[in-house]
Amino acid sequence: MNDTPATRDRGPVIGGVVFIVIGVVLLLEKMGFLPYGFALQFWPTIFIVIGLVKIVYAGGRPTGVALIALGIFLQLREVGIIHLNFWDLWPVFIIIAGVAMLWQAMAGPDRAISLNTQFDAFYIFGGGDRQVNTKSFKGASLMAVFGGYKLDLTHADMEGNDVVVEASAVFGGGEIRVPETWQVVMRGVGVFGAYEDKTRYFQPDASKPTKILTVKGVAVFGGIEVKN
Questions:
Q1: Which runs of E-coded beta strand occur in 115-200?
Q2: Does pTM top 0.85 for this prediction?
Q3: Nearest 5°: phi and psi at 59?
Q4: What's the pLDDT band for 7 if we cut at 50, 70, 90?
Q5: Side-chain half-sphere CA neighbours of 203 within 13 A
Q6: Residue 168 CA, distance from chain mean position
Q7: What is the pLDDT of residue 2?
Q8: pLDDT tens readout for residues 156-212
Q9: Average pLDDT for 64-92
Q10: 104 lies in which domain range?
Q11: Is 6 within the bounds of a domain?
């Protein structure tokens, strides 16, 4: 299936732009055009950029807002507007975890076995393990911050021939298992992290259409792994 300009995934483009900007800033610092330590002073903007990507392109508004708020808070500390040590901030993480728990409770329980055709899951300071058995899977959006998740699709079948799973992690990771008869296309962006495709594709019946699973998202100081 060929991508048109209107439908092509923007994740790699955004990741490329982010890396180019970071590289240019580091180069200018090394050449003396910027003060020493200038780049390290603005490292929290990584969280802000990821949050904007989640809101604009991934539809993950709660996750995006949380990442942007965290990035702004840390950036204000780096520039000296907020005078707090890192260990003074630990109550903030408890508050974030509590809010995330309430949000997950309102969204419904994350059952081990699910027949949902499409769902969103956000894990913070924790994780989840979900097995999907539906025969009309339409896609999912997964996000972990200081946590992890597992998604088992080995007993599922997709609706149509093309499904997208958005899988992201910040200081965490995710594992996705798929049937051997599904062809996997990886379009994730790794920022000090990695996206790994360890699947093998085998379709014994050549007359059947190819089932394509596209996995995209962002991995920051973490990893996303897809395997059989």
A1: 118-124, 127-132, 139-145, 148-152, 162-170, 173-177, 182-191, 194-197
A2: no
A3: 70, 15
A4: very low
A5: 12
A6: 1
A7: 42
A8: 998 889 999 999 988 889 999 999 999 999 988 888 888 889 998 888 887 888 899
A9: 74
A10: 11-227
A11: no
Q: Say if CB 174 and CB 225 are below 8 A apart.
A: yes
The answer to whether 149 touches 140, Cβ cutoff 8 Å, is no
Cβ-contact 189, 15 below 8 angstroms: yes
Answer whether residue 140 is part of any domain. yes
**Token digits of residue 139:** 């896609």
Any domain includes 222: yes
Would you place residue 51 in the very low, low, confident or very high pLDDT band (cuts 50, 70, 90)? Answer: confident
With contact defined as beta carbons under 8 Å apart, do 184 and 215 qualify? yes
The alpha carbon dihedral of 146, 92, 98, 167 has a sign of negative
User: For residue 195, with 0-12 CB atoms within 10 Å meaning exposed, 13-18 middle and 19 or more buried, which class applies?
Assistant: buried
Nearest 5°: CA angle at 22, between 122 and 93? Answer: 30
pLDDT at 14: 56
Residues 6+ apart with CB under 8 A from 184: 178, 197, 199, 201, 212, 213, 214, 215, 226
Q: What is the number of domains present in the chain?
A: 1
What six digits make up the tokens of 14?
């955004």
Give the largest Cα separation in the chain, rounded: 65
